[in-house]
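--- STAGE predict ---
source: upstream dedup step, 1 unique chain passed
mode: sequence only
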Amino acid sequence: MHHWLIKSEPDVFSIRDLAKARNKTTCWEGVRNYQARNFLRAMTQGDRALFYHSNATPSAVAGVVEVVREAYPDPAAWDSRSDYHDPKASPQNPIWSMVDVRLVEIFPRELPLEELRTVKALTGMELLRRGSRLSVQPVTPAHFRTITALAGRKPAGDRA
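--- STAGE serialize ---
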């Protein structure tokens, strides 16, 4: 199992929106950065990801999700009405991918970015690097465990 961090602006799609979704599951669509797309393609069923609220006050880790469907083409890319449309993409040349994720846990408290920056055990975490803007990024098992411990509990069934 691998660990990841996925970002969403809470006014666009929050962890609470995910909690209200059918089966607490949604497709993670709209990724339009090649490196982030490649990370999506590397995800496997059962992988866990930290759900991060970006561009928020404060930006914070809000919970954990599980990958329940591995990467498949993102049809929004070839839908000209979509906010995620890419004129270079088509069903024959999809370019962009998405995965399906299911909510595992909303943390008892969100973990603000500024708090995470003070935790020595998180040294080297991609999220904490200056200029780190990827919406999908890998997380080491140690960093994942540290963050879930900081949140006040370890997600049920975590094999990290």
